[in-house]
Amino acid sequence: MQMGVVACRTVRLRVFAFLSLLIGSAATACVPDERPGRAEPSARAPSARSSAEPALEARRAPATPAAPATRATQSGPQIEQRFVDTFERGEPGPDWNVTGPGWAIKEGRLCVRSAHNHPAWLRRRLPVNARIEFEATSASPDGDLKAEAWGDGLAAATGNSYTNATSYLIVFGGWKNSLHVLARLDEHGADRRALRVEPGETDPRAQPVLPDRAYRFKIERSDGKTVRYFVDDVEILSFKDPSPLLGEGHEHFAFNDWEVPACFDNLTITPLKS
């Protein structure tokens, strides 16, 4: 009798285990798999390997060098009405592209020393015909007041001699106060216009630059081809250019300097009708 009870219990346990197995299988077949990162085959998510590959390639790719500054980013708007800069501020500011050290605002003037032909370019663009007026003072008996007109807004000397200019160059009392010069592209060029300076000369065009005296300059082109420069209302030199510097690359004005301490002030640019 005891053996019969044990056998019966064994059969019941086996039946219970079999039924539990059947129920568990049915439940597994009926409940969808919604674990994170698992999707239906028809909308399969990218594997971790494939999603990481673009980032890996980006890290391995060589860095692209920054694009050089273009003329458009260096230039400002064209001057279409009278423009004035009196330099009554603490620094040259965004209107100016200073190509070398030594430039600073001092007592309301733009001053420089030993720029070695690294100009301060006005970013605003000149019209073809314009009148450019300013005051300039040299603190040295060597004179040497310099400006540029209708250049590219970027150029600076790459050597001891400024042979890579892009503009008309105005030099008043250059070469230790021995010459006044108006040149095209090269201040040493064979086609430059030059006047010999003589101490004691009665002709105001041939007089040397006096230290600490403010001179009033005027540079003008009114016909698209002839550049003239005046100092204190006296015409010093003119240059009639058979191949005038026009258009892109020839739209900017600059103050320049070699070694003397010099200051510039009261810049006025007036567009002229063609």
Question: Can you walk me through this structure?
Answer:
The structure is a single chain. The chain is α+β, with helices and mostly antiparallel strands. The protein has a single domain (76-271), classed as Jelly Rolls. It contains four helices and 15 strands.
% residues in beta strands? 25-35%
Q: Low-confidence segments, ≥5 residues, pLDDT <50? A: 1-73
The shape is globular
Largest pleated sheet: 8 strands, antiparallel
The CATH superfamily is: Exo-inulinase, domain 1
What's the CATH topology label? Jelly Rolls
Spatial extent as radius of gyration? 40 Å
Number of helices: 4
Oligomer: single chain
CATH 2nd-level architecture:
Sandwich
The proportion of residues forming helix, as a percent range, comes to 10-25%
Secondary-structure element order, N to C: HHHEEEEEEEEHEEEEEEE
Chain-averaged pLDDT: 81
Head-to-tail CA distance between termini = 131 Å
In short:
With 274 residues, the chain is of the alpha+beta class.
SSE inventory with pairings:
Blueprint lengths: L1 H29 L17 H13 L10 H4 L8 E3 L10 E3 L5 E3 L2 E4 L7 E3 L7 E9 L6 E7 L16 E6 H4 L1 E6 L8 E4 L18 E7 L4 E6 L2 E7 L11 E5 L5 E10 L3
Antiparallel strand pairs: 1-15, 2-5, 3-4, 4-15, 5-14, 6-11, 6-15, 7-8, 7-14, 8-9, 9-10, 11-12, 12-13
Search tags:
single chain, 274 residues, alpha+beta, Jelly Rolls, eight-stranded antiparallel sheet, seven-stranded antiparallel sheet, 4 helices, globular
